[in-house]
Amino acid sequence: MNNISVFPESFLWGGATAANQYEGAWNIDGKKASTADMMTGGTHTIPRRITKHIEEGVHYPSHEAVDFYHHYKEDIRLFAEMGFRSFRMSIAWSRIFPNGDDITPNEAGLQFYDNVFNELKKYNIEPIVTISHYEAPFALTEKFNAWASREMIECYVRYCETIFTRYQDVVKYWITFNEINSLIVPAGAYIAGALLVDDSGIFNNTAVDSTQLRFQALHHQFVASAKAVKLAHEINPAFQMGCMINYSHGYGSTCKPEDMLKALRMDQVNNMLSSDVQVRGEYPDFARRYFEENNIHIEMAEEDEAILKQGCVDFYSFSYYKSHVVGTRPEGDETQGNVFGGFKNPYLKANDWGWQIDPIGLRYVLNHVYDRYCIPMMVVENGLGAVDVVEEDGSINDTYRIDFLRDHIEQMREAVRDGVNLIGYTAWGCIDIVSASTGEMAKRYGFIHVDKDNEGNGTLKRSKKQSFHWYKQVIESNGENLG
């Protein structure tokens, strides 16, 4: 019996970011536009737009973001001051292969990440690298509607081979796709699949509402991920390869059997379908009926089933922000979420953006997933988006963020006591970055404040919030001193 009662000494405490929300320098040193670079700003009430061309006078948040490209030394020094043992980051594909299908990589882009990894190594911070995090070279979307085409697989694997070879001595942990399951809903079609044209050939600047097209694109990503895992293990057997799931946790609205069955089906399709393919190497049996009932016909190459079996991941990582309710509820009782939504839970509070706060749900998910797969797990995104107020003396008293994180870490600790093999936790948006969903800066997650507003104005000055000092003590005590 596993009697672990505290986090292991090797636990990977840290923070997480994404290149498209953090780096900026969108067209510098050989980089070309990514899909994220074609998304305008927005707010909680005004949705972002996708444009085919850069429109003059329009704000595109990712173009500068918070300029990690020129501030990486300062930021990593601050991460080290907090005591980070790990830093989850992503590589911008279009910084390495500007057009996506280039034969020769962009050396200036590779050198930038050389510099970042050297800086992390200087402070003994372990990089956890997401290979594709909600962006692809926009040229591939223009050329063949990106992941709708099987041609993307070869482009992705070439990109992987380049970065695996280049960074094989400095990166151990890799994640193939960020929140891969987000592709199953219209809201994830562009951000996760780079899809801009639906199956009728019509350009759509908000969401591709074609279930068939999105699941076909998802299959192409499954194959690409499996090929990348196999290749990675050949290049360096010490590589640890992970999947990353946008965990959509839903409770049955009542104990009525129909409500509970609906919650089960949602969990299977939204969460387990993608991880079953990546962890077990095959589509689950329940997918067959789901595909039949939704008129989904996955085109597979003859070798695809074997490829999926050969490319199973080594660890399971996921994002967890909120939960919701599934089943019979009155209309208009919806709650917001990270791509996935549902009904409100009357027992939970919500943040300023309507995401319901459920720390115990994290323990539930950790146990639920570990029981299914029994492989190491990481929580690689978890945090509170909130409006922070800078006081006259410059302080930011984000006690609400501390409360959120404390409650979730307490439940992670309980999950470890339950026997879950949890090896890492990287709080989302460890420094203020652009919101992927709304394009805002006002929706802040970080321990470090960045002076920038929704319109792109500001000095980019970094300053420590109260949560910075709190998280430092959490890491120093290996999760025991939660303040």
UniProtKB/TrEMBL annotation:
Enzyme class: hydrolase
Keyword Acyltransferase: no
Superkingdom, taxonomy of origin: Bacteria
Keywords per UniProt: Glycosidase, Hydrolase
Pfam families: Glyco_hydro_1
Documented EC number(s): 3.2.1.86
Single annotated GO MF: 6-phospho-beta-glucosidase activity
Family assignment from sequence similarity: Belongs to the glycosyl hydrolase 1 family.
PANTHER family with a match to the protein in the record: 6-PHOSPHO-BETA-GLUCOSIDASE (PTHR10353:SF296), GLYCOSYL HYDROLASE (PTHR10353)
Name used for this protein in its record: 6-phospho-beta-glucosidase
Protein's organism: Paenibacillus tundrae
